[in-house]
Amino acid sequence: MHKFGFLSTDTASPNDEDVQRRSSISDGKRNWADWIKMHFDRSLLVFQLFYFFFYAAFGSLFPLISIYFKQLGLSAFQCGVLSGIRYLIDWLATPFWNALAEKWKKGKSFLIISLVCSMSFTLGLGFVRPSPEGCLVRLPYSLDYNETLDNVVGAPLAIVEPYRFSTYDNLKSVDMTRDLALNIKNKIGQSPLYLDIKLLADNPKLKAKGYGRVVEQKFYSKVPNFRSPTHYAPGSLVMPLYSTVVYSQTKINQIFIIIILLVLFGELLSCPAIPLVDALVALKTSVQPTSLYGQQRMMGSVGWGLAMFFIGLALDNSSVFQDYPCLQPGYRERNYLVCFATYSVFMAFALFTSTQFSFTYEGGQESMYFKLVKDKMAKTLLGRTTKNRSKLVNEEDSDEDDPNVTKHNMTSISESEQNKTIPTNEEILERQLGIKLGSKEKRVESKEPETEYSPADSGQESFVATAHLKITKCAKAMRYFAKPQLLLFLFVTWFMGMGVGQVFTFLFWHMQELNGSPTLFGVATVINHISEIVMFFFSKQIIDKIGKLLF
């Protein structure tokens, strides 16, 4: 820099390079700030938080729910039924609840109730377990016995009553493997396995074979209720793979009925949550670019991936059970109460966030159906009827507070009002729907003739017009299903849904069969959602460059 303030023309000064570097850094920060401002609108932050918390709760439990059921002794068929019936209930009940919420204009109330029901019924799944029949153990044996344990047929194994608090130290838990199962249904991926009763030993059988020294006789006195294998029918005892707990097939079937009832009622009451929020977000972002709606849902993928990753790390270190019935769990058994606890925390945050939503509807916030309920309650409790101001629900008061209304008109209106009674909300609703509600109380007779509100009046015409409009819309919608393009699209969607459902339900089941750990489950989930987020940002550019197929 020259002393007069002019820059040198031959060489660039170090200060000039610093200024350029600082300006480039500031431009970069400004670009990042603009990107963050564009993708994270403050007015939509509450929706992003809801999606993050809700799908974090979902991702921390439901991808692993089939493995949890597998650990309880449920079969793959039963796990598939529990997973598939959830989506079937969603498909059937969601339109009903959403239509009801829109008709009653109570979207926020329906949303909060559905989240509470989802949290309550889902947490109930964590406390429903079949009572164990016993524990599979290896019997204590004498060290001076010449034979090896492999040569002692049937001697090493037995079933004892749950012995968590037993003081006998020589008992050792045995994990269920395919070598201990019957040949029936002993395939890859099959769980639970039928325990082979012939491999179990009891005291009389050992004495008859001369193996009395193999099993120490004090075992039968110190371990209560030693279970003789002769008390069980072949194929009546099952064990989850790599577990030490023995279950009865009858008790597992009973628990399956309880679980399916919890899933049915829980999903029936909680299914409208996400569709209500999706409709609200779509309404808020309808005047903005279409990708803005997807940006809000993208936060759900972020929450799902992060929650599943950390849950996988936590499950690898959660092999301790507070109420495990046997002395030692299997080396692949995990305490899935960690998942239920994490689910409840994230769902509580989602519930709190949902209280900040504001559902807007055309017309009044309170529907005529709720006004009718209020009239019934007032008539029953107070003995009187709440009067209405002769307005329908969505009717605007255009003449109210009009300064141009003359005194003559005011006088004529007051005289005409004296000649007829003010109808109640119930009467207005009857005229609007064109039906009689069947009230048993005797109505106050009007001075005007009864034919004033005949079926030919405007209320009846409005009802007929509304019904005709609905029929026309349904017929128009059904005509779309005659298009081959739409039918092909629906078939592809249905076919892809079958594949996605199977992967979602049994992917981690299969990975566990391949000796995969919960941490591997979390890493796989993170990779899945990273690819989903990347494709969200670059799919439009790829489609524009490659092109798309138009039917």
Automatic annotation (TrEMBL):
Record keyword Transmembrane present: yes
Keywords: Membrane, Transmembrane, Transmembrane helix
GO cellular component, one term: membrane
Annotated membrane topology: Multi-pass membrane protein
Domain (Major facilitator superfamily associated) ranges: 47-547
Top-rank lineage group of the source organism: Eukaryota
InterPro entries: MFS_assoc_dom, MFS_MFSD6, MFS_trans_sf
Transmembrane segments: 44-65, 71-89, 110-128, 255-277, 298-315, 335-352, 486-508, 520-538
Polar residues composition-biased segments: 406-424
Renumbered residue ranges of the record's region Disordered: 1-22, 389-425, 440-459
PANTHER family cross-referenced by the UniProt entry: MAJOR FACILITATOR SUPERFAMILY DOMAIN-CONTAINING PROTEIN 6 (PTHR16172:SF2), MAJOR FACILITATOR SUPERFAMILY DOMAIN-CONTAINING PROTEIN 6-LIKE (PTHR16172)
Protein's name according to its UniProt entry: Major facilitator superfamily associated domain-containing protein
